[in-house]
Design brief:
Length: 147
């Protein structure tokens, strides 16, 4: 079984949270008269793969469907492979390989590099940490900001 690694795209703030350390923050209330008044935010993942937002004001909220049916956070799992440059490959990454540039998705239990609707390359078996003959050139979320 492969190691579970994830990163999260924040649809509201348009930032990638790449490590567990970036999934939490604490800040002090500037308007408070007490030095112990603070607010906190942290994220976690439930068994259904939904991102949960924990705050001191609202408790635990399932943020999966918040913004008009669109999730506030998009969860991307590590696929267990690294590019030939050593960079880990996650779902939603765009990878340049021999046949072109494809988006990394899972479909029918297989890793897929989808160049478009008709050109999809399926990879059934791989070993965790194996080096894939390609390089990560972006991802579907950050690249959409520059379009």
């Amino acid at each position: 079984m492969r190691e579970r690694k994830s990163r999260v795209w924040d649809n509201v703030n348009k930032v990638m949270l790449t490590s567990r350390e970036s999934w939490g923050k604490i800040w002090w209330d500037e308007n408070s008269q007490h030095e112990y008044d603070y607010h906190s935010l942290s994220l976690s993942i439930d068994n259904a793969g939904h991102v949960l937002e924990h705050t001191d004001e609202h408790g635990v909220c399932d943020m999966h469907f918040l913004l008009q049916g669109k999730p506030k956070y998009e969860l991307m799992d590590w696929v267990g492979l690294k590019g030939k440059d050593g960079k880990e490959i996650y779902e939603g990454d765009k990878v340049l390989f021999q046949m072109g540039t494809g988006e990394v998705i899972f479909e029918f239990g297989a890793l897929v590099l989808a160049i478009d609707e008709r050109n999809r390359f399926y990879f059934g078996l791989w070993v965790e940490g194996e080096v894939f003959d390609g390089v990560v050139v972006g991802n579907i979320y950050e690249d959409a900001l520059s379009d």
